[in-house]
Specification:
By secondary structure, the chain is mainly alpha-helical. It is built from seven helices and two strands. It has a two-stranded antiparallel ribbon. The longest helix is centred in the N-terminal third of the chain and has 14 residues.
């Protein structure tokens, strides 16, 4: 494998990285959207480090996101051959350490799509895929044939 290093690596300003990663950065929509705008325009595929968090990649362009999604064996959220080895949910290092204490070392706390990699992710996704097809979403119908609002009203005794 050939490795190429570039001298043109752009560093994302700490203010932009912190605004996107830290919870308090999400309190101000205008500032958050400006940070995302900066990222898309200047460093759309950025590896950043924020104190207290593992380094992460921020991918801000749709085409790049779609390319990553087409390669689940390369870009796995489930830890590939080591399930639970990393957390696909942005969590600080202290939170990850606490989770690992509770689970005996794993960061996988739920068997949901977010934590699963192939082939588990594919099998789970296939179960629900039809529900999210445009025609089904447009009709607002579930497998029961009722809309969620009707179903909710009937279970609460209001229908």
């Amino acid at each position: 494998m050939t490795t190429v290093e570039s001298a043109d690596v752009l560093v994302t300003p700490e203010e932009v990285a912190r605004r996107i990663v830290l919870p308090e950065g999400h309190r101000d929509d205008a500032g958050l959207f400006e940070a995302y705008r900066w990222l898309r325009q200047n460093n759309p595929l950025a590896k950043i480090s924020v104190d207290g968090y593992d380094p992460i990649w921020l991918v801000s362009k749709h085409a790049d996101i779609m390319e990553i999604e087409r390669q689940p064996h390369v870009f796995t959220s489930g830890g590939a051959d080591r399930p639970g080895s990393h957390n696909p949910i942005l969590q600080n290092q202290a939170g990850d350490a606490f989770t690992q204490q509770l689970t005996g070392g794993s960061l996988r706390i739920l068997d949901t799509l977010t934590y699963l990699g192939p082939p588990e992710h594919t099998a789970m996704k296939d179960i629900a895929a039809d529900w999210f097809r445009p025609a089904n979403l447009k009709s607002g119908r579930t497998r029961s044939g009722r809309s969620p609002a009707t179903r909710s009203a009937s279970t609460s005794g209001r229908a």
